[in-house]
Amino acid sequence: MIHVNRQDELWRTIDGIAETFGMTVYDLARRGSVGLVVVIARNESHLLDGGDKPKFELGQGGVTSDDCSKVVRELMVYFQAEGERFGLPNEPEIEVCSPGVNRELRLPEHFIGAVGERVKVTASSHSPATGESMKATITGRLLAADDKRVQLIDENSKEKAIVEFLLNEVRKARVDFDFGN
């Protein structure tokens, strides 16, 4: 899958359709040239991060299967007429889903919306001292996030160390909800 940039016309078009149902696009990916994976969240237009990016605070009246069905039906009708314009067949395979409890964190606003939650982050960077490539997977409470970096408390370190990664170092991240507590 290839993730679509939120400034892309395809994202903006699908977001406009989702908005008619009170939803917003949380994430979007192309599935080759035949389909799309559209992740939607409830549109909380009053939760803006100071710009035009939604602040995702999920869990308050989440997306239902009925919401997904409505959006996918509308997208199918739209792409029957306009699919070719976006490099899609007239009847593309479209999957519409909610982000879920253990949602992927990919965009800055995803991280910002997850501040305070338990997350799992895999990041890689180069050691300034040795020049070696390093990879780390850290699980802990997300303390802070902005357009450039994330900070979390490493729950596996004895001293509960605060770890910071630049967003461009993050290879994979998701909310890691603790169902035991």
From TrEMBL:
Q: Which HAMAP family match?
A: RimP (MF_01077)
One GO CC annotation, please? cytosol
Q: Return the protein name.
A: Ribosome maturation factor RimP C-terminal domain-containing protein
Q: Which organism is it from?
A: wastewater metagenome
Tell me the InterPro entries matching this sequence. Answer: Ribosome_maturation_RimP, RimP_C
A Pfam family (short name) is DUF150_C
Q: Which residues form the Ribosome maturation factor RimP C-terminal domain?
A: 105-179
Q: Does the keyword Hydrolase apply?
A: no
Alphabetically, which GO biological process terms does the record hold?
ribosomal small subunit assembly; translation
Q: Keyword Transport on this protein?
A: no
Q: Which PANTHER family match?
A: RIBOSOME MATURATION FACTOR RIMP
List UniProt keywords, sorted A-Z: Plasmid
